[in-house]
Amino acid sequence: MDGPDRVGEPVKGNKRPRARRFLLPAMLALATGVVLVLVLAIGGGGPAADGTAAEDAADAAPAETAGRAADKKGNAPKVGEVVPRKWRDVTPDGVWTGPKVSGPLVRVEGRKPPPPKPRYKRFFRVMVLTAGTIRAGGTRIHVDRIQAPPFDEFCDYREGGSWPCGRVARTALLRLIRGRAVECHLKDGKLADDLKTDCRVGKQDLAAWLVEQGWARVGDASNKALVAAETEAKSAKRGIWREEKPGG
Description:
Layout lengths: L14 H28 L9 H22 L8 E2 L21 E2 L13 E4 L3 E4 L2 E4 L2 E5 L2 E2 L7 E2 L5 E2 L1 H13 L4 E4 L8 E4 L1 E3 L2 E2 H7 L4 E2 L5 H13 L12
Helix pairs in contact: 4-5
């Protein structure tokens, strides 16, 4: 054919022999590839020639059977129970396999989750009722671990006379808060109308501050830190432990 066919012209008969010239080499190449694959498989180049795969399958069969039996029973391994191996080391050469394991594998107790953090609620516009009681909205809160003097309590001087230590103790707590927000621990995670719990202003624990300044007695004798603070406040004659009149 001298030139390209035009639209509408019949295709000449010499195009089909050109396709046949390419078909014969392709068939020869395919046949050569099939022969090479057969030679490699018969000559020992296959993965199962040295019997390694068969031996690995035989070694893994008992462990896999034991694992399937355990799964059928539905019982998970207990702490201290010996667990049969179900795997083999397939780490390639040149790669670190980690620490060597000798002996049977033993199920150990899992790591326990950390205890939940205390939940605090922030109260605003706090009203100080006594040295150990505050109110925020409709919630009355008593500071835990202490025994604060009532508002109308009077303390005696050593040489006679008394002074309104309950009222002064309330004023001391009022000056510490100074309109700031008070955070209190919700022990059960729920807010009630009347609470007895630990409270703080910023990072200052109210119970610790009241005992250290002598404005409250220890209510929990097992708390060594508070007992030590109370002993030191008594020795220094602070707060309600004062025995002499001011300026005396």
